[in-house]
Amino acid sequence: MSVSDVGSTPVTVLLVEDDEVIRKTVGMALERYGYRVNTAGDGLTGLELFRERRHDVLLLDVMLPGLDGIGLCRKIRESSMDPILMMSARGDALDVVSGLEAGADDYVVKPVDTSVLVARIRSLLRRASFAPGPERTPEPVPGGASDLVFGDLAIDPQGLDVHRAGEPVALAPTELRLLLEFAANPGIVLDRQILLRNVWDYGWDGDSRVVDLCVQRLRKKIGPDRIETVRGFGYKLRR
Amino acid sequence: MGHAIARAARGLLNWRSLRWKIAALVAMASCAVALAVGVLVHQSTFERSMSLGRDRAFSELLVVVDTYRRTGSTSDEADPAQLPPALLQQARSTGQYRTWYDDRRPDTPWMWAVQQVGGQALAVRIDMGTEMRSLQALDRHIVMASLAVLAVVVPLAASAAELPNRRLRWVARTARRIAAGDLEARTMVGGRGGDEITEISATVDLMADSLRDRLLSEQRFTADVAHELRTPLMGLVIAAELLPESEATELVRGRVRVLRTLVEDLLEISGLDAGAERAERASVPLGRVVEESVGRTGLRVQLMVTGDPVADTDPRRLDRIIANLVANAHRHGRSPVEITVNGTAIAVRDHGPGFPDELLAHGPQRFRTGAAERGRGHGLGLTIALGQARVIGAGLAFANAPDGGAIATLHLRGDTGSKG
């Protein structure tokens, strides 16, 4: 029954969770799906593991002893754009918002079953497969022929590089995916539901806060005015 | 801008406003003072001109008496016959002079003086017209001065009343904001003044503080309970999935599912009870939202959508309402379960025994499913649906169809096309 997401090398998941039972069972369940799972029981051990080994997806609990999930997420984002999925047992606005603000790509509220967890991980991996890896070859010249240019922003849809005023911009997979969605529809208002569906693979029940917070993070990186808020409707990319 | 002007105009036109009550009070007080002063001044001026008139009449009379005594001639200017007999009688009996103010003709008042000298009544009269006219002029001046003062004082009072009025309106506005759920709203009227308005402002702030504290501690408790319940539950959920397939495993998974639903329902209700839930509105196509919502329940439902209705609502909460109504219809009613979306009204109907009378009369009660034939269930679903409907500002009505079956109808607000 184990359906593998794996080609030649298995996808590696870093699971940071203080509850021993969850750590063990989620680890076992993900391994059944063919993932390789490294686990840590607190934030600092998680950070150490993250620095030591390469992971494809990071699964972080919000409430952790020592360095909590939010802090850990922020630390990871200082150096890496790996996809991050937060797990919260509280599910109240504060937890969700601060996790997304710290740079997480998505969140789930416990208890989740394995199928939901795997679906979210796959969605994150799909987005991450867009993102430029470290092995990506020569940087295309910003503003080249194939680039999409919006003011001082240049997006190379093939190389998946984003430059702002000639400087490369580091985007997390979700942020890049969101920007590409906007770049494919310049000047058109995209509502939150469309973005949830196309970027996060959610239906109508998705939490539109993930969109708002991701747009906020994107604005910090590509300039505050590039993506306009259309009150009551959604967002659009200024040409 | 236009709004502010309209509001100001409404404030001015509100005759029951404190502003006009204070202005009326000031006007009344001013009128009373003016009246009292006016009457006193009128009175004393009148007395004074009377006494001057009497003195003048007496001096004239002395001259006439002197002339009569010397020459025996009388003046025909003032005929004593015109005097009232009672006065003549008095003068005759005492032999003293008498004065009389004659205002039988108001435009030409006279001051008479009369004395009986040796059988002959001698009289003089002084014209008092000038005095009376100047007295009337004085009255007019007093009235005009009073009116002029009123014309200044009343608007002044009305605008002076505007300051406390504005503070009171601010307190009322803040209280309304708190009632509408803005728990950080404060009047912030400092200790300055120390009047009753400062006191009521401080009280409103204090009330908001304690309200917020209570709500926060309730929310914190709910969040802590959620964490404490969900963490072991998640371990249980995943562990149950890992169990090898068997009959016992199915039993465990079934109970875990029930436990999970119960915990989520209870947490949802306590969240709704805490009153901290806010709708995240968006314009959504109702047909599609309901269809997807029904799809996720995995239950058989006949869906009929009329037209292409769009509603301004919170799709996640709408999903919760639909899911709970559909689950309830299946658990307590009988198939077929039908959903009709007509405009912004969504009706969920089953073909079972209908809602029990108690539910129709008092609304859904927790852990009470009513009659035994309604089947088992913890009775939280309709409570949640009702609570979520309140959060999105929709109405949820329960009724029984005449030909049997329960109907729950959700009335959403229509899409106004603009927000904010």
Task: Label this structure with key terms.
heterodimer, A: alpha/beta, Rossmann fold, Arc Repressor Mutant, subunit A, 2 domains, 12 strands, 20% strand, disordered N terminus, B: 420 residues, alpha+beta, five-stranded mixed sheet, three-stranded antiparallel sheet, 10 helices, rod-shaped
Helix content of chain B: 55-70%
Spans where pLDDT lies below 50 across 5 or more residues of chain A: 1-6, 132-143
Number of distinct helices of chain A: 8
Count of β-strands of chain B: 10
Portion in beta strands of chain B: 5-15%
Judging from the principal axes of the Cα atoms, what is the shape of chain B? Answer: rod-shaped
Structural class per helix/strand content of chain B?
Answer: alpha+beta
User: What is the beta-strand fraction of chain A?
Assistant: 15-25%
Just name the CATH architecture of the largest domain in chain A.
3-Layer(aba) Sandwich
Provide the domain count of chain A: 2
**Main interface pair?**
A-B, 32 and 34 residues
Give the helix tally of chain B: 10
What's the CATH C level of the largest domain in chain A?
Answer: Alpha Beta
Radius of gyration of chain B: 46 Å
Considering DSSP H and I runs of 4 or more, what fraction of the residues of chain A is helical?
Answer: 25-40%
Sheet with most strands: strand arrangement of chain B:
5-7-8-10-9
The named CATH superfamily of the largest domain in chain A: Response regulator
In sequence order, what are the helices and strands of chain A, one letter per element?
Answer: EHEHEHEHEHEEEEHEHHEE
Describe the structure.
The complex is a heterodimer of chains A (239) and B (420). Chain A has 239 residues and is an alpha/beta fold. Chain A is 40% helix and 20% strand. Chain A has 8 helices and 12 strands. In chain A, strands 2-1-3-4-5 form a 5-stranded parallel sheet, sandwiched between helices. Chain A has a 4-stranded antiparallel sheet with strand order 6-7-8-9, covered by helices on one side. A 3-stranded antiparallel sheet of chain A has the order 10-12-11. In chain A, helix 2 runs parallel beside helix 3 (69-79) and helix 5 (114-130) packs across helix 6 (173-184). The longest helix of chain A is centred in the middle third of the chain and has 17 residues, at 114-130. Chain A starts with 11 loop residues before the first strand and ends with a strand. Residues 1-6 and 132-143 of chain A have low confidence and may be disordered. Chain B has 3 domains: 15-180, no CATH class; 209-273; 283-411, Histidine kinase-like ATPase, C-terminal domain (Heat Shock Protein 90). Chain B has 10 helices and 10 strands. Chain B has a 5-stranded mixed sheet, with helices on one face. Chain B starts with a helix and ends in a 9-residue tail after the last strand. Residues 416-420 of chain B have low confidence and may be disordered. Classes of the chains: A alpha/beta (239), B alpha+beta (420). The A-B interface holds A 19, 21-22, 25-26, 28-29, 32, 63, 89-92, 109-114, 191-193, 203-209, 231-233 and B 219, 222-223, 226-227, 230-239, 241-242, 260, 271, 280, 282-284, 288-289, 292-293, 296, 315-316, 319, 418-420.
